[in-house]
Amino acid sequence: MQRVCFLLKVRADRLAEYRERHAAVWPEMLRALSRSGWRNYSLFLREDGLLVGYLETEDFAAARAAMEATDVNARWQAEMSGFFESPDGARPDEAMRPLTEVFHLD
């Protein structure tokens, strides 16, 4: 199992709405993530907008590609992209760059 952690930055003026949107994630989005191999997926948001994502999957590249192939992902990304600071204009799902794991207590 591959553990993946990534960072994104939510716009400070949209933090409350971002939290609200994640209180009611579309059921079809949840199903697509599960079917695409995203397990134990969590998002953590700091008050300054730093977003930490964590998930476990067999193959992150394959899990991302499987999500990319879904209609619901395209709709979700279009709705959510305005919440993020993205200097290079990348969509949030494209901006997920896994951090290097340096320790894991097993």
From TrEMBL:
Pfam family membership, one: rhaM
Molecular function per GO: racemase and epimerase activity, acting on carbohydrates and derivatives
Alphabetical list of InterPro entries matching this protein: Dimeric_a/b-barrel, Rham/fucose_mutarotase
Biological process, per Gene Ontology: rhamnose catabolic process
Superkingdom: Bacteria
Stored SUPFAM superfamilies: Dimeric alpha+beta barrel
Name the record gives this protein: L-rhamnose mutarotase
